[in-house]
């Protein structure tokens, strides 16, 4: 049986159901830790797709999941994550600086050039 997209597909802090993502950038804009970015994807809506570039920096704040209008992004339950021996990151100055660069890059992943 295929796993529900709401179920963590692995030991990931944050994951996406790409079928639902409309590439609206909202989750990227609210992430404090520079975890997310958009990548060019010619086959998807608006020509872009959400990308989880730095899962190791996810602080588990849930802002992305709470603000996504399309229920496309999910964050691990804190207690389940901890019970599995995993932990979210702490917010660092480096992560905050990366987030500022992503915003300045029009919410595109820093590996992507140009403006969509
Ligand atoms: S907020 Fe949701 S729909 Fe918008 S880019 Fe993020 S995952 Fe996709
Ligand atoms: S839970 Fe918070 S830190 Fe993690 S990706 Fe979502 S908004 Fe970013």
Q: What is the structure about, briefly put?
A:
This protein has 116 residues and is an alpha+beta fold. Helices cover 24% and strands 14% of the residues.
Describe the structure.
The protein has a single domain, classed as Alpha-Beta Plaits. It is built from four helices and four strands. The protein is 24% helix and 14% strand. The strands form two sheets. A two-stranded antiparallel ribbon has the order 1-4. A two-stranded antiparallel ribbon has the order 2-3. It has 116 residues and is of the alpha+beta class. The mean pLDDT is 90. Residues 14, 30-31, 33, 35-36, 58-64, 75 line the site of one iron/sulfur cluster (SF4). The site of one iron/sulfur cluster (SF4) has 13 residues, from helix 1.
How is the biggest beta sheet arranged?
A: 2 strands, antiparallel
Beta-strand content estimate: 5-15%
Number of E-state strands = 4
Q: What's the gyration radius in Å?
A: 14 Å
Shape: globular
Order of helices and strands: EHEEHEHH
Structural class: alpha+beta
CATH architecture: 2-Layer Sandwich
Task: Tally the structural domains.
Answer: 1
Question: Given the structure, what is the number of helices?
Answer: 4
Question: Percent helix among the residues?
Answer: 10-25%
Q: Within the largest sheet, what's the order of strands?
A: 1-4
What is the CATH C level class, in words?
A: Alpha Beta
| Distance linking N and C termini | 37 Å
At the fold tier of CATH, the topology name is Alpha-Beta Plaits
Poorly predicted parts = none
Provide mean pLDDT, rounded: 90
Which small molecules are bound?
Answer: iron/sulfur cluster
């Amino acid at each position: 049986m295929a796993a529900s997209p709401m179920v963590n597909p692995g030991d990931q802090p944050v994951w996406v159901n790409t079928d639902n993502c409309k590439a609206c950038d909202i989750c990227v804009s609210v992430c404090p830790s520079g975890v997310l970015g958009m990548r060019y994807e010619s086959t998807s809506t608006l020509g872009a797709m959400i990308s989880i570039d730095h899962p190791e920096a996810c602080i588990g704040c849930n802002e992305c999941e709470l603000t996504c209008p399309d229920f496309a992004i999910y964050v691990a339950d804190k207690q389940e994550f901890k019970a599995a021996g995993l932990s979210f990151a702490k917010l660092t100055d480096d992560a905050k600086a990366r987030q500022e660069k992503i915003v300045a890059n029009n919410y595109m992943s820093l590996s992507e050039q140009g403006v969509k």
